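SAMPLE LOG
Freezer: B-3
Tube label: C17
Construct: single chain, 73 aa
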Amino acid sequence: MDDNHAYAYVAGTLGGEALLDSHLPMLDLVEQLANDYKAMDPSDSRSAGLEYALRVLGQSYAEHPAYQQEWRP
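STRUCTURE (predicted):
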């Protein structure tokens, strides 16, 4: 369960079907991409594409009060 952290908690608490409506997979992807981006050298040719991908993924939270308009792709 430790390896699957939030997935295991949600499935164990609310049932496996709860994961179908969950944002957890997207949040994990955003976290993974953000960690890769922070570790990436700015001269890496993948940097611009990864920045754009992070902005697109984060756009689903545009209605959140802390979302900043400069984060839009």
